[in-house]
Amino acid sequence: MASDHFSAMRQSIIDGAPDTASTLAQQAVASGVAPIDAINNGYVPGMHDVGEQFAKGQMFLPDMMASAEAMRAAMSVLDPELRKLGTERPMAGTVVLGTTKGDIHEIGKILVGTLLTAHGFRVHDLGVDVAGEKFADKAREFKADIVGISALLTTTMKNQKGVVEAIEKAGLRSHLKIMVGGAPVTRRWAQEIGADGYAPNAMSAVALAQELMQQKLQVQS
Amino acid sequence: MRPKFELLDRPLIERILDEAFQLIEDPGVRVAPYVVELLREAGVPVEDGVAHIPEALATRMVDLAPRGFYLYGRNGRPAVQYAGENVHFDPGSSCLNILDPETRQPRPALSADLVRLVQVAEMLPQFAAQSTAMVCNDVPPEIGDWYRLLLVLWYSEKPVVTGAFSASSLHTLLELLAIESGGPDALREHPRAIFDVCPSPPLNWSEFASQNMVDLARAGVPAEIVSMPLAGATAPVTLAGSVVQHAAECISGITIHQLAQAGSPIVWGGAPAIFDMRTGKTPMGAIETAMLDVACAQVGKYLGLPTHAYMVAGDGRLIDAQVEMESGMSAVLGALTGINMISGAGMLDFLACHSVEKLVIDAEAIASAQRLIEGIEPRGDSLAVAMFAQTGLAGDFLKLKETRALFRKEQHFPSAIIDRGLPNMEGELDVAGRARQRVHELLASYERHPLHADREQEMIAFAQREGRKAGLDGLPGLLRPDYAEAGLTR
């Protein structure tokens, strides 16, 4: 496959064009390109470009959401092809996400989930108003590497502590990392409740998740 | 002439309202089970938790809402008038952190910090009302809402902008207020406090918010709708589109409220903001956020309703030029719009942090805004000719009796926070330093006026009883633990 085809894939992600991304993936499959090559040489570099441009303030959140949508469109073609070959895309990690009990805000959490997915994480979004026990149950069920707890309100932020406690009670604490976020949340609060990390915005949540995965893998090795 | 600022012309306001009425019918408004029967009895179809409110009913309910009402001070006299072009300010509310005056870094707020803020706000005439400004981290979270109200009622005689943290705790706050006022009827007749109630964007009256609206209406205690569209995230990205959503949330809220108790006092308020497309933050100091506040208030005023907005807050993390520029600009715009209650002073870092020092600086911006809306008055038959007749071309205006008689009306004199070159303040301290000094001075001159002894004892007994249920030891900010244990002796 010509490198200009990979660069078109890359560009479809930068442009946030799901139809183009999907068509290019179908063409790649039809012409016998290994799905993993299309992912690693075409689409993933596109997502990296988007991340870089976002960090420089040259791309904005709506652009990022569109790029994530294009990535999803390409993967919905390529993932089944990988499975046919008996393989799976190597995931960056498994994340269970949710907004804490009593809180129904989710825009920030959705953004984090979208970006984590676009950066190769498998994300299970539990939605809003999620009790600590449910976080723990789902973390066990999905074998989560990371649990992400969101809270927008000063009043519901305190329930993040309850989630950490529920995870401890379930005996899962040493198996996973916990990250917290949301408007009132601070690094100090994260430390106080025994979380492993805090991110002030969605992009830094991705960097934090990558860092936590490295820490986790180092401990395991 | 009272100077005035407007962003919307009449045809645009009418378009906004027309679309808002369309939205509350289709797609409708998500409501909690608590209000479903109330709405159905009024003929509103409710399916799968979504109410489809007909325009005719909503219009009738908006017409039933009072055009104005008063909040009263502890002395029983009217202190805040929610109506017409009256403009009042109060500090921002429910903050978790305080900017420590010594370290200049944010840290969790404690009862003592709230007491300090209340005492300072009490001394500043710029604030017609107090707010339950902080969540006290030395108090169990489940009693955090009534406890901060207790501290404000204890140290202040001004009206209070407050709010409950849950559906059930509202009744504890109302009980406390009733003790302070001398009973539920006295509270209803002369309400000391107003309760913020927040719908969740878009168009969702949650269990907590629905229940608060109904219970406040039935208690006859004023409610203030704080609708918070985030333009581009939880609301349309266009400012006009977000104003439509704000109107739809307010109108649906008023419908629920007035169905519960027609004529109960209610305010068209909000804390709208833009959504920063680089960071996902909601900048309260952005000019577009102030534009949303102005436009939303204009729609409420068009309907003849009392209004509220969240302004005078900045987004920087320290007391610096950015936060004060943002806070000053929005103070001026809010005042020029004639918004009845403008909350937010003292807050910074996207409403995550409060600062007593910022509050006293904001008070100077507010004083300037208050002077601005007094406008330019002729003050007599002659504007200048009569004064020239006395002084001629010598221009010796300083000696004229008119100068002495009128300069205090014409000029506002800021406190020493504003550097006007007064002696002993040349270059010694920056504005944050001068603010710290001013806070010390105000605290030194603060004097608490006790409540009626019976009510004071009843409030303490109430606080001790309710506090013990949550495992609170003593009454932080109010009494030392040993006093509390000893009973009511102070």
Write structural notes for this entry.
The complex is a heterodimer of chains A (221) and B (490). Chain A has helices at 3-15, 18-30, 35-55, 61-84, 107-118, 132-141, 154-157, 159-169, 187-193, 202-220, and strands spanning 93-99, 121-125, 146-150, 177-181, 197-198. Chain A is α/β, with parallel strands linked by helices. A five-stranded parallel beta sheet of chain A has the order 2-1-3-4-5, sandwiched between helices. The longest helix of chain A is centred in the N-terminal third of the chain and has 24 residues, at 61-84. Chain A is globular and about 55 Å long. By secondary structure, chain B is of the alpha/beta class. Chain B has helices spanning 10-25, 33-41, 55-64, 111-123, 144-155, 169-181, 184-189, 207-219, 239-260, 287-302, 321-337, 356-374, 385-391, 401-410, 431-445, 453-469, 481-486, and strands at 29-31, 46-47, 50-51, 69-72, 78-82, 88-91, 97-99, 106-108, 130-131, 160-162, 193-197, 204-205, 223-227, 230-231, 266-270, 273-274, 308-310, 341-345, 347-348, 353-354. The longest helix of chain B has 22 residues, at 239-260. The model of chain B is unreliable at 481-490 (pLDDT under 50). The interface between A and B is medium-sized, with 21 and 29 residues.
